[in-house]
Design goal:
- By secondary structure, the protein is mainly beta.
- The strands form two sheets. Strands 2, 4, 5, 6, 9, 10 and 11 form a seven-stranded mixed sheet that branches. Strands 1-3-8-7 form a four-stranded antiparallel sheet, with no helix packed on it.
- It is globular.
């Protein structure tokens, strides 16, 4: 069983930065990409960024140039660097690996 532990959410001013991390532990035999999802208040959950086991990345169009996903394979950790945060970025962010989901962490952006 894979367990995902997220950290790094919180409150930030518009234009500021946050760094999210997602640490995987347990029986990690999954070769699926690690993916970050974003669920804004009252809206559906959408993919933000993904990274494959080989390091290939993919980002949603609206975060390109602002969010960067990276992977520390030795630590089974995925990072999401979120820069230039703006008004449509708040909500709950989740990391996933295969069928495992992290607990989700709130990101709030103040004006």
């Amino acid at each position: 069983q894979v367990r995902l532990e997220e950290s790094g959410g919180g409150l930030v001013q518009a234009g500021g930065s946050l760094r999210r991390s997602c640490a995987a532990s347990g029986e990690i035999f999954v070769t699926a990409p690690m993916v970050w999802y974003h669920q804004p208040p009252g809206k559906q959950r959408d993919m933000v960024a993904a990274i494959t086991e080989g390091g290939t990345t993919h980002s949603a169009e609206h975060v390109k140039g602002r969010f960067t996903i990276s992977r520390d394979g030795a630590k089974n950790t995925v990072l999401l660097q979120m820069n230039s945060l703006k008004s449509d970025d708040p909500g709950v962010y989740y990391c996933t690996l295969g069928t495992a989901w992290g607990q989700g962490t709130q990101v709030t952006v103040s004006p």
